[in-house]
Specification:
The chain has 205 residues and is of the alpha+beta class. Helix content is 29%, strand content 18%. α4 crosses α5.
């Protein structure tokens, strides 16, 4: 009986020790991908969430025209060419730009401007190069330029280059109230025209 009791007590002790043994906890270490993506988003969903919406052009934005403008350099020895944006390119807006750049006095106004001869031949092709008539512009001013002889000639070159390039002319006639350009320094005769000055950066009068 005593032996049976001892066996029973030993069995109870083994069960007691088993019950007191701590339960092992298995810790799951997150992978690098899970750490960077804690919400578990798929690559497709993540790509959609980070996409920057495409900015569409403003349909109401004004459409500007580009024009070449010639002004006199700071040394007064040549011209400077730049491209400007205009709401609309007309003889008036070109003259306004020349006034703004200090080329012309605001008192000088346009009476008329017209073009005769060939139609525009296209970019890089001169209008009269195909054997037709020259494309000639006629700019009639209300008064002559008031400046010393050297600067006056530079101003006329700036006007001529501006109008010839933008209107794709072969040459430009400048008039004063319908007559050939005449001032205290410069006198033009009927049939005298100005052409594009290629070496405009340095002009020798």
């Amino acid at each position: 009986m005593k032996k049976l009791f001892m066996c029973f007590a030993g069995a109870m002790m083994v069960l007691s020790l088993a019950a007191c043994k701590p339960t092992e906890v298995t810790e799951t270490v997150p992978t690098v991908a899970e750490s960077a993506n804690p919400e578990g988003l798929t690559p497709e969903i993540m790509m959609e969430s980070t996409e920057v919406p495409e900015k569409l052009p403003d349909a109401n934005a004004p459409i500007l025209e580009k024009a070449a403008l010639y002004s006199i350099n700071s040394a007064g020895t040549g011209l400077v060419r730049e491209i400007v944006d205009l709401d609309e390119m007309t003889e008036e807006t070109l003259m306004e730009q020349l006034v703004e750049k200090g080329v012309l006095d605001s008192a000088i106004e346009i009476n008329t401007f017209g073009i005769s001869g060939d139609i525009k031949a296209g970019p890089g092709v001169k209008a009269g190069s195909a054997g037709g008539e020259d494309r000639i512009g006629s700019l009639d001013l209300a008064q002559a330029v008031s400046a010393d002889a050297s600067k006056e000639q530079m101003i006329l070159n700036a006007i001529a280059n501006t109008f010839i390039e933008n209107y794709e002319l072969d040459k430009l006639e400048i008039l004063i109230n319908g007559e050939p350009y005449t001032s205290a320094n410069i006198t033009m005769a009927a049939g005298d025209y100005m052409t594009l000055t290629d070496g405009y950066e340095e002009i020798k009068n």
